[in-house]
Amino acid sequence: MERIIQITESIDCSTIYEELAHPDSGGICVFIGTVRQQTNNEEVTSLFFESYESMALSEIEKIIDEAAQKWKLNKVIVKHAVGSKKPTEPVVVVGASSAHRDACFEACRFLIDTLKQKVPIWKKEFFKNKSVWVSAHP
Amino acid sequence: MEILLFGITKNIVGASTFTVPASKKSELGIADVASLKGYLKETFPGLCDISSLAVAVNNQYASDHTSINETDEIALIPPVSGG
């Protein structure tokens, strides 16, 4: 199975189809996470992402290994942005291609849910008058 | 022993790395993840207020019993929030 993993300053969503297209695949499923301009009715001006890159890459490899054991996938991509991102900008892309759609739909959900639980990347929300590391405090 | 810091832990400590003084390491017998966390929480009480605090040793999540050595790459991992 082919895989593309990136921690990058800027995600290019225009290349996703070519990256996931495969002659043995009958379906491609992609999730793109983007910056939402509101959190709890407060206006978000930007998000800032920081990663522990070497460990983040190794955790993403493990998640893809696990997905490849659960489903028959032909290609997988996982990309995460770092740095400052404005509303509507893409911050994460996960995608999979497989012979039939069930496998890539389920794998995609697993990839993003597990990434959010395990990969050492941190998000700071910037509002007009304050900034907060997300989930840092109970 | 140098500790890499990320996210909220960087703000709490006020730097992106923290070096455990060699004297403290031997005096307090800091030899595993649990003793390191104990020392850091005592030195930086703000670390006690965050939702969770994991430690990575050589790019892997480590348990409290994991031993640590001078040559290991050690990082504090506050609650992750990617995606």
Could you give a short description of this structure?
Chain A contains 3 helices and 9 strands; from the N terminus they run E-H-E-E-E-H-E-E-E-H-E-E. Chain A has helices at residues 16-20, 53-70, 101-118; strands at residues 2-8, 27-34, 38-39, 42-51, 75-81, 83-85, 90-98, 121-127, 131-133. Chain A starts with a strand and ends in a 5-residue tail after the last strand.
Please describe the biggest sheet of chain B, giving its number of strands, its sense, and whether it closes into a barrel: 5 strands, mixed
Give the integer mean of the pLDDT values of chain B. Answer: 96
Mean pLDDT of chain A: 97
Instruction: Tell me the strand order in the biggest sheet of chain B.
Output: 2-1-5-3-4
Reported for the largest beta sheet of chain A, the result is: 5 strands, antiparallel
* Biggest contact: A-B, 29 and 20 residues
How many distinct beta strands of chain B? 5
Overall SS class of chain A = alpha+beta
Report strand % of chain B: 15-25%
The backbone outline of chain B, from C-alpha atoms, is: globular
Rg of chain B from C-alpha positions?
12 Å
Strand percent estimate of chain A: 35-45%
Discrete helix count of chain B: 3
Run of helices and strands of chain A: EHEEEHEEEHEE
- Helix content percent band of chain B: 25-40%
Regarding quaternary structure, what we see is heterodimer
**E-strand count of chain A:** 9
Uncertain segments of chain A are none
Q: Separation of termini of chain A?
A: 40 Å
Q: What is the overall shape of chain A?
A: elongated
Radius of gyration of chain A: 16 Å
